[in-house]
User: Which sequence fits this backbone?
């Protein structure tokens, strides 16, 4: 009996020695074998114990939401305002701005909630008369500034003395379209142009400079094509 036991121990030690030698000689293969064995074991456990629904299912079951989290998720999903609500709020804001501008004498159009060339011109006239540097964009701050301001629109254009009726008759009529163009050209660096609403030498020079930059036919005229190109470049409504 002692001889058999000693022989078995010798065989076992010899097997362990060979295994250790194999691991030492081929460490990468041994690691790959261990990883593959672990993966197979995880797949079998998942298939037998973790899958509660139809295949395929995740290897590890996802943690179910707690009751508090389940109640919070719909609230968070509904917290974002709908685009229609935002759009309706903007329309109402612009309508209020138009009403205040009309009440102060800067705007003579409908309070339709559309930010067009007439509204843009009226806002810029107000900002100039009030001496404000606020951006000409629809905002609650702009509405509050218009409501609180005592600014009045200019009664004359500066083209002729108010006491000279003959000069008034022969003076050119200011155009809101020209005024919008003059402001856009001045804001985008095409010259120090006063928004008089009348095409003068400075305005014509600025128009020609814009036409040269855009490689358009140079005539210095505020045509429909010129207004479209200027509006596209500035991103500002001009008519």
Assistant:
């Amino acid at each position: 009996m002692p001889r058999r036991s000693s022989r078995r121990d010798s065989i076992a030690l010899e097997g362990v020695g060979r295994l250790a030698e194999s691991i030492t000689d081929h460490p990468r293969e041994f690691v790959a074998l261990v990883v593959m064995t672990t993966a197979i074991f995880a797949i079998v456990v998942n298939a037998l114990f973790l899958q509660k629904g139809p295949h395929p299912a995740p290897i590890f079951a996802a943690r179910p939401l707690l009751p508090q989290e389940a109640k919070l998720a719909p609230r968070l999903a509904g917290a974002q305002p709908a685009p229609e609500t935002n759009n309706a709020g903007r329309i109402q804001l612009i309508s209020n701005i138009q009403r205040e501008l009309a009440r102060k004498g800067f705007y003579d159009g409908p309070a339709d909630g559309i930010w067009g060339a007439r509204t843009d011109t009226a806002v810029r006239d107000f900002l100039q008369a009030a001496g404000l540097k606020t951006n000409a964009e629809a905002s609650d701050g702009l509405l509050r500034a218009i409501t609180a301001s005592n600014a009045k629109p200019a009664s004359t254009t500066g083209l002729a003395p108010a006491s000279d009726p003959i000069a008034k008759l022969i003076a050119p009529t200011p155009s809101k379209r020209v005024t919008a163009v003059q402001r856009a050209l001045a804001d985008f660096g095409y010259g120090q142009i006063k928004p008089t609403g009348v095409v003068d030498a400075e305005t014509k020079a600025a128009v020609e400079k814009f036409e040269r930059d855009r490689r358009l036919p140079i005539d210095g005229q505020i045509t429909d094509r010129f207004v479209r190109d200027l509006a596209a470049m500035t991103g500002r409504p001009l008519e």
